[in-house]
Write a structure and sequence with these properties.
Rossmann fold, six-stranded parallel β-sheet, 17 helices
């Protein structure tokens, strides 16, 4: 019986690599409706609405910057209209799944579920508002005061959940602190290697790479969560020492600043811009070294871009702590760096100096996928998790 409601402000049901798409794909026999917004956060444009009859789009206002009042308004509109939608539903669902962020939509769902005795499942994909602190650059009591209402709503959403899912063990543990009685399960974003290989085969772009040139890449959103100046300055250590090229396969609000830093540090780099996912994967597959860099003190411990790097068999240089760093160390698929002692320039030089050794580590990516990140193994748990009879 289809009696489950899936709600996610972000994501696109027709993007095969999105969290929302995978949640539905592996639970379609149970899901009655998928509720999402009609605005694409990554591209800052309205989505082309799917013709699938189980998808319900909530219209929200647009915004052009990730950190803006307009974005807060857009998310509030989603929560308000979601609340109206839930109240209008004649047949109550048995379970509601809601991705976090946003906190406001999860709070609305939690209140509705408690009032109507509906099983409530949250999926913590990012830690809002905590993850914004490194980006905003405001510390101490002022930051706590500014974020208190947001933090309160987030905690209340955690407390109302019957089941807590998370895209990392760390995220699950953070939410569980406020709700120790909830059932929990870690669901990594996952990699479908067969799908990746099939998509790569459909790419029609032609790339030429000299055998003597090392290609480095950053893939994904050129947004506020990433320390691009440190990346570019670090890569400049290779100037005059090695033949290299740095590719930014993506686009975003920091494009202009990145272009300025490329010029300032005289780095051989290219910003490819947004491309189709199959072409994005092809660019990554041609690269030797992929750089997984976030801002210092970020709350992120696992990411889509890391999965893309692993799936396309890149050697990964990583700044994230926790689970991603452990995977890199345990499976020998790259090297970790920090922002103080073991900095990216030192690690990159070490990598290039001993590339004949490190390039062989790329073959270890498949073992990591098979043992930890296989998407089918991860998401095949979803029907049981979403079912009311499931005991985790």
């Amino acid at each position: 019986m289809k009696n489950i409601l899936v709600i996610s402000l972000f994501g696109d049901i027709e993007l095969v690599h999105s969290r929302l798409s995978n949640i539905y794909k592996y639970s379609s026999s149970l899901v009655d409706k998928v509720i999402t917004s009609d605005f694409d956060h990554s591209k800052k444009a309205y989505k082309g609405r799917s013709l699938l009859n189980f998808v319900e789009y909530i219209h929200v206002s647009s915004y052009s910057k990730n950190l803006s009042f307009a974005r807060i308004v857009s998310h509030m509109i989603f929560a308000y209209r979601l609340n109206k939608y839930l109240k209008s539903v004649s047949s109550k669902p048995a379970t509601i799944y809601c991705a976090m962020p946003s906190s406001t939509s999860a709070y609305i769902c939690g209140k509705y579920c408690k009032k109507n005795n509906i099983r409530f499942v949250i999926d913590v994909v990012d830690l809002w508002p905590d993850s914004l602190i490194p980006v905003l650059g405001i510390k101490g009591k002022l930051m706590k005061a500014i974020l208190y209402p947001w933090k309160y709503i987030t905690i209340q959403a955690y407390k109302m959940a019957d089941v807590i899912l998370g895209e990392s063990k760390f995220y699950v543990d953070v939410a569980r602190k406020y709700n120790p009685l909830a059932k929990t399960c870690t669901l990594y974003l996952g990699i479908d290697q067969d799908m990746i290989d099939s998509l790569l085969a459909t790419s029609t772009i032609s790339l030429y790479k000299s055998k003597t040139e090392i290609w480095l890449c950053y893939g994904g959103n050129l947004g506020t969560s990433y320390d691009f100046e440190t990346l570019i300055k670090g890569v400049s250590i290779l100037n005059g020492k090695y033949s290299y090229k740095l590719l930014f396969v993506g686009d975003g609000v920091y494009r202009d600043k990145i272009e300025d830093w490329i010029s300032l540090y005289k780095v051989n780099a290219e910003i490819v811009g947004f491309v189709n996912y199959c072409d994005y994967l092809k660019y990554l597959s041609y690269c030797d070294i992929a750089i997984n860099i976030f801002r210092e003190n970020t709350m992120v411990v696992h990411s889509y871009k890391f999965n893309d790097y692993v799936a396309t068999n890149c050697f990964v240089l990583n700044s994230l702590k926790g689970e991603t760093a452990d995977m890199i160390d345990n499976y020998h698929i790259g090297l970790n760096f920090d922002f103080e002692v073991n900095t990216i320039d030192k690690v990159l030089l070490e990598c290039c100096l001993n590339w004949n050794i490190y390039k062989e580590w790329k073959h270890n990516n498949r073992k990591l996928i098979t043992e930890i990140l296989d998407k089918k193994s991860i998401y095949s748990q979803m029907p049981q998790i979403l079912s009311a009879s499931r005991k985790l």
